[in-house]
Amino acid sequence: MTYDFDHVINRLNTNSLKWDALEERFGAKNILPLWVADMDFRAPDAVIQALHHVAEHGVFGYTVRPDSFYESLIDWFERKHKWKIEKDWMIVSPGVVPALSLLVQAFTEPGDKIVIQSPVYHPFFYVVNQNERELVDNPLVLTDNKYEIDFEDLEEKLSDERCKLFIFCSPHNPVGRVWTKEELRKVGELCRKHNVLILSDEIHCDLIFKGHTHIPFASLSDEFADISITCVAPSKTFNLAGLQSSAVIIPNEKLRKQYKDALRIEDGDMLNPFAIAAFEAAYTEGEQWLDELMDYLEKNLHYLTTFFQNEIPQVTVIQPEGTYLIWVDFRKLGLTEKGLEELLISKGEVAVNQGYIFGKTGEGFVRINIACPQSTLKEGLKRIKKAIQSIKDPVSD
Ligand SMILES: Cc1ncc(COP(=O)(O)O)c(C=O)c1O
Q1: Ligand 1 within 6 A of 219 CB?
Q2: Which distant-in-sequence residues (6+ apart) come within 8 Å of 390 by Cβ?
């Protein structure tokens, strides 16, 4: 191990959303944050060095992107995901979420229907509703502690002629599924059959646990690539979310033009100089860091799973295949969603994401971020146990 993921870094007073916005978001100051999708780890050394280099230069004017910037992403996806991306297909964006909103505007009209699969990353609801499109849910189905796609229902939803777009989360946040080739094929065939574009948010594509493989939807066939818009970024993979850099990949030339036209700003795809440097350094030199990170997350996942099995058996961990966001089922405790939230904050002094923010199907679940030193995770789980023991029918020790 080159990197010390056990090392606890004090993130308080660093303008961190995760650590410094607790009072605003949870109404309590001294609580332990295991929410929001960023990690309590330092980025790879190469990224930090690249940022030093930019800072030391001291001139932060408008930017262009060198070929090496594009090559870093192209090489990464070819090597890690067997997907050959062409430079022309890439349009950069500061964040995936702003891109999602613009993509909705570019490819649909007000009143059009857009399919999502709840429980799902909550901004998907927002980008559809705020843009006055109609949200159509194809809820994922939980069978034997694993979420599956209800393809019959999906086909029914996609076949509506007002349905124009499917926002697909692959791998899926929060349920942790890494979709198989068969599942992706079925999704693609249905979208093709019913002329629905697929917006595949693959921001978590590099955070994959052993035994699973992420397959970029667009890599499966030219026909699928033709109806695809894929969002990727180094931000989750290398913990660079605050630097804001991502890429929208659109292989179909006509669709690409449609998106570029919708951006409606000349040079609208500029990134800041720190984002450019970090993006390139991460994709070029971050692989070893990522390998070590995944080993560490695997250990944290094992710790969390064993903890719940042994200490709070009424609570079930949905085993993730990818991402560091763990979807945990608290429904057997019989609490209302507000009751569970209040309990964890006031009695546990721990901040997690409540399942209901991911849609109605998320009620009674909690999303726990395990991308932290194991000592932090242990403390968080101890607090969750304390909160649960404080209710009238406490679990036995
Ligand atoms: C599925 C998904 N898409 C997008 C984002 C955020 O992307 P960005 O920070 O680039 O806007 C997240 C963050 O958790 C996410 O889980």
Answers
A1: no
A2: 343, 347
